[in-house]
Write a structure and sequence with these properties.
3 helices, alpha+beta, Methylamine Dehydrogenase, Chain H, 407 residues
Length: 407
């Protein structure tokens, strides 16, 4: 009996020692599972700063096309393969526009999937060019003067899994059937484009919001670009054009700037009530039928919380801080951060980040709304009541009169 108990004790002791040893060994090895992977990753990114030099994407694309041509000449035993799905390939949506000349036609920019077009109000979609030099499409705009002219910008600047530098801008002159690369825009200044907007009063004039270099402008349909020196430099997340010849741009940690297009005179919309510091990213919207009424939501400088939501009824001469929804998260404001006000109802406001919320009393109180998918990046009004929503799950439609459901 004595030896039996002793044997059991020894067995237990050996088991404990083995468990501790294996646990320590696993912990020790866990930091060495992929030694040097980060160094290798940074080395592959390009230069000594871990950045891909301007123009390299275009060179890689040209080399890939050359290789593809060689492959096509070789014998191919797989040419009868037909793709059968899955079809949910557009990826995260960053921009939605409705064709100014055809209300049935939607275009959207998928930051991991390129430009997509729907000819039937979103019932079905088709990619424009699956072999474009880059599929990192971040924004799109259409000329109000020529139904066939479109531009889209490229370059994801969030620093997430789809963080790829862009190749500047692309232009279509055949109604978005095909796009040509404006190769002169593949520069460091234009490799991270947040927004692109066509002037509503000047033909062939477009504005580009960049990640590090302020606002850029072309007055010749994209043939040449120059930075708008009258505006600040730095990061610009949003640009909006007005019917009366102004451009408004949201600069991080600076505020909203309004520029008159004909003489490039600039006004900073930081009237009484606008915070003097403590904010970074800005999303803003004005009511189309009451343009003096604007709403702006501000993130804290670190981008991981909401600083506040503000309203002006006099075009930015003075601002009032409204209430904020406490039941949605703004912890990823650096990534998902968008706000809109209804075109014909200045009391109806939607704010969205990880999840969305809406107000029917001009931001005094907020209500929960249907959450179609997490991480919101775009809100586009299809009509006075129909709202198109772009998020990490694609494109959805919501009705202003019933925000508890979506299609």
């Amino acid at each position: 009996m004595k030896y039996k108990v002793l044997g059991i004790g020894v067995l237990i002791l050996v088991s404990i020692v083995t468990f501790v040893y294996l646990k320590q060994d696993k912990n020790a090895d866990s930091t060495l599972q992929h030694p040097g992977w980060m160094d290798q990753y940074l080395e592959l990114k390009g230069d000594e700063n871990g950045k891909i030099p301007a123009g390299m994407h275009a060179k890689w694309y040209a080399a890939d096309q050359a290789n593809t041509a060689l492959y096509k000449k070789a014998e191919n035993n797989l040419e009868n393969i037909t793709e059968v799905g899955p079809d949910n390939v557009g990826g995260r949506n960053r921009s939605i526009i409705i064709d100014r000349f055809n209300a049935n036609r939607f275009l959207c920019a998928g930051v991991s999937g390129g430009i997509w077009v729907s000819e039937n109000k979103g019932a079905s979609w088709a990619i424009v060019d699956n072999n474009a030099p880059t599929l990192s499409a971040t924004c799109i705009t259409q000329s109000p003067f020529d139904k066939d002219v479109f531009y889209y910008g490229t370059g994801e600047a969030f620093g997430n899994s789809a963080d790829l530098g862009g190749l500047g801008l692309f232009r279509s002159r055949d109604g978005a059937k095909t796009f040509e690369h404006l190769t002169h825009t593949a520069t460091n200044a234009l490799n991270g484009i947040w927004d692109v907007e066509h002037s509503l009063t000047l033909d062939s004039t477009i504005y580009v919001a960049t990640h590090t270099s302020g606002v850029w402008r072309s007055t010749d349909g994209g043939a040449t670009f120059s930075r708008v020196s009258q505006m600040p430099s730095g990061r610009v997340h949003e640009i909006k054009a007005t019917d009366d010849g102004y451009i408004m741009a949201a600069f991080d940690a600076y505020g909203i700037v309004k520029m008159k297009e004909d003489d490039l005179s600039v006004q900073r919309l930081n009237g009484a009530g606008w915070p003097t510091s403590g904010y970074g990213r800005i999303s803003f919207s004005y009511a189309k039928q009451s343009p003096q009424v604007m709403f702006a939501q501000l993130a804290v400088g670190s981008g991981d919380a909401l600083q506040g939501i503000y309203k002006t009824s006099n075009g930015g001469l003075s601002w009032t801080k409204m209430s904020s929804p406490t039941f949605i998260s703004y912890t990823q404001a650096w990534y998902d951060f968008i706000l809109t006000v209804a075109p014909a109802d200045t009391n109806f406001v939607v704010t969205a980040a990880v999840a969305p919320a809406y107000s029917t009393d001009g931001g005094q109180t907020w209500k929960e709304m249907a959450n179609s998918h997490s991480d919101y990046h775009e809100l586009t009004w299809e009509s006075n009541t129909s709202l198109l929503v772009g998020n990490d799950g694609g494109v959805y439609r919501m009705d202003k009169n019933n925000m508890s459901t979506f299609t």
